[in-house]
Amino acid sequence: MPDNLTIIPPRSGTSFLLKKGQRLKVVDIEGEQVSDFVCYNLADKAEAISSGRTIDYAETILLTKGHPLYSNRSNVMCEIVEDTVGRHDFLLTPCSADTFRIIYGHTQPHRGCFGNLCAALEQYGISPDAIPISFNLFMHVTVDGDTGRVAVLPPKSKAGDYVVLEAKMDLLVGLTACSAEMSNNYAFKPIGYQIEG
């Protein structure tokens, strides 16, 4: 495990800047831990990562090494340049207090990745309504081809697995250690990251 990883504690999130050409390495330190990734064009934060456009242009929901991630304006924001897992999700929204209330029945729900992203990005002027569907690193979601039913399964990532994203423009990034029980095989663990270049 690299010594210079920044650690995101379980069920929390952070934000930072990633300059064009820099690479972001996101590491699943202990295994089976999801990390929600969102990004914005630093020069115009109304431009944000887009699940719909990325999936449309890739013609697959299984995004991995070699796939660019597009913005709501059809610009490439970053590209997946390394991926030791090959299974991530770009369908489901960041978990939130509403997720825990509606799906899990919690009466005093955790704020989830959505709340953590809101808190981390607020200093940059990002409002809750401006937080898009996240690219959910290491999340294992299946879709039944006949019924369309979505299932959240334990991540396939093992301790030390990672993804590297290369920025194609100056970015504002939000990143979490996911808070949803089902997504992380019912254990909450840290996520590590480092910026290269």
From TrEMBL:
InterPro entries documented for this protein: DUF1989
Domain DUF1989: 7-172
Alphabetized Pfam families for the sequence: DUF1989
Protein name (database record): Urea carboxylase-associated family protein
Species annotation: Hymenobacter metallicola
